[in-house]
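Entry 14. Two folds queued back to back today. First construct below, sequence then structure tokens.
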Amino acid sequence: MTHAALLLFDLGGVLIENAVFDSLNPMLPQPLDSVAIRERWLTSPAVRGFELGRIPATEFAEQFIAEWNIAMTPQAFLEAFIDWPKGFYAGASECVGILRQRYRVGCLSNSNALHWAKFDGFEGVFDIALSSHLLGVIKPDEAAFVRALAECRVPAEDVVFFDDSQPNVKMAQSLGIRAFHVDGFAALMPVLQAEGLM
């Protein structure tokens, strides 16, 4: 059984169904494969600026449209963008509730003001909710995990972390966090059970 003082979850692609790449690809002049679009998203200056809380939504939309060569107005893009996170996977919020009876449970997400507000900042869902746009640091940068450990006041070896991005998992592991790569809630459940957390 895994020792854990804190279970820390990524949101999109782990607990929340996120249609970002499926929705973005049809907007592009030339569709990208799943690996290429994910890599481009993670290194996009517009995305990083918005998810670090450094630029407002309208400026993000303008920069993103120019950067990705999308034929949409900023307003139309933002109207589509707000709907990319669809909500918790079936059973995910109930799972978090069960886990909170035995563990401290938090989230560490690369997010932004629009998507965070859509879910009311996850008020009452987690014991602690951390977002890149509020912290000013972003995964997979080492600073994001160092800041999360400080905010949660817990040593790395007492944290179990789940993320759908391999670079995020590798960075967490390099700092001594027990981290698992899971692609979707269906993939998360067997890991929780195998580690004796459920």
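Second construct, same run, same settings:
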Amino acid sequence: MNFEKLLILDARLSTRLRVAEKPGLLRAIATVLAHSGDSWFCLTAMALTWLFNAGTWRWRSTILVIATLITATLVLGLKFLVRRPRPEGEWGNIYRQTDPHSFPSGHAARTAMLATLSVGLGPAWFAALLLIWAPLVSLARVAMGVHYISDVVAGMGVGAFMGALFQLVFL
């Protein structure tokens, strides 16, 4: 199978998962999950954790902020290198205007990196929560029509790699 056929299959499968234009509970859940991986949301949560905690949680949040910023820089570079346009759609205009490129998914990379890194940082309940949350965010990004399946698979791969790398560096 050649590359062009893979892209067509990717687009077809991604369209099947799409719920952005279908009102209901599934769309509402996908909307919340898709936004929950936003960088501003994640960084705000980490900043509040740093501000209102001491000791281990302050240390964890510092590492997570540094890792998030470095991962975002890598993903942005990859997006400008590849320049794959996002799928057509109405939902997610803020993403479409500020970042017209879809490959790899920054949300998938960020959440996979956080989940992978949290396995080493602990505690176990935190890692388990993020390991469940990360793929749901990635799936929601496809469901809401701002990414193709290959975008989130690649993003999760980049994120998992970066999370493992940060474990080596920080832990």
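Quick look at the second one. The chain has a mean pLDDT of 93. The chain has one domain: 34-170.
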